[in-house]
## 1
Amino acid sequence: MDGAVGQVASVGRERDALHAAMRGWGGVPILTILCAAIAVAASTVPQWSGWFTYDRGAILAGETWRFLTGHVTHWNVDHLVWDVAIFGILGAMVERHDRPTLLGLILLSAAAISAATWLFHPQVEQYRGLSGLDSALFGFAVPMVFVAARSRRESGVMLFVAALAAGFVAKVGWEFATGKTLFVDSSAAGFVPLPLVHAVGALVGFALWASRRTRGSIPLSIDDGELFHDR
């Protein structure tokens, strides 16, 4: 029994050390900035774009890293600017309160979106874009902010966030119905929109937020540097 307790305590200390290390740099969203910088480089350096793009044939040939790295590449500047801007805003919001959660959300949503693309869009040879990850961040950030606002009885913020959520659902529905993107001119960029990746991303983000709530992470305030607080 003592050995089991010691192992649990050791795991707890290692977890706390990891969280402490990842919370460095004060309030600077270093992970968000790093990911955005990688996306810009991977989308503007042709050799990097070639190596990082989700490419079904190349993945089957053994270049398995593309399964995750395709998200940081983009088809043109318009596509890149929209995706990175949204990632920067939402990523910084999540990272400000819990950097390890942001890292987990990025990895989990990247894998889930690529898996969904692989399984449900086998005709897609190449895929690029952060929009699926943006949707995952949105799916996590919206309930996070809504619950924090509710705890502070900020009805205006609650209504605004609810409107954003409704707008996102309408946007994805419109994309499914029309086969077009709302913000980026997909025809000019030369790609076919995949609204499924936005739906999958949002579901992953919401599921991760819900799992945090279920485990007892309590939302406090959107102003205090620590949105989550363990019981």
## 2
Amino acid sequence: CSGLTSVNIPNSVTSIGEYAFSGCSGLTSVNIPNSVTSINYGIFINCTNLESVNIPENVDTIDNMAFQNCKKLSQIELPDGLIYIGYNVFVGCSKLTSIYIPNSVKALGGYYGSDFGGCTRLKKIYCNISDPNSINQYTFRDIATTIYVPIGTKEAYEDYGFVTYSTFEEMDMTGVEEMKNTQNTKPIEYYNLKGQRINKPKRGIVIEKYNDSTSRKVMLK
């Protein structure tokens, strides 16, 4: 499926199979509807040109290796209702610069490797999980970054025994929660004024559709 560049999944879809888009090297954007509740095993593995994907609020599971080797994925917003994040989910996402992990997460990582290995540009992880026992000790292996944790939890994180080169710092996560929605909004599709989809927009007025399901008219110069 190297010729596939974008996917707009209809609302009638409730589940997407394992490895569904694996190796679709031309895929750049995916719009997932609210009807989907889980991002399954290896679904976007080796989608090396994937730049944007929206994860709807109803998703409670991101399974193992879901975004492994998505080398152009620079940002991703995890929904506040997320409960489970598997292992090797973001391994090889070398353009990812920061990520916020919501406090709804009850299990993060697994025994088969780091979730962030190869994320060479990852400078900040905002981990809003109060109990480090919910996180596998290898989750932060192979990265050297700053992991921000809730106030009052730094000592527990440092004592837990994580295998990592990273450091832990405390911070008030309230501000991060308020900012993440606006920072992670980006266009995923373009349409002309007649409502026809445009693959490669040039100059003029177009309609941009964003990964938070909003849209607006913009002038491209």
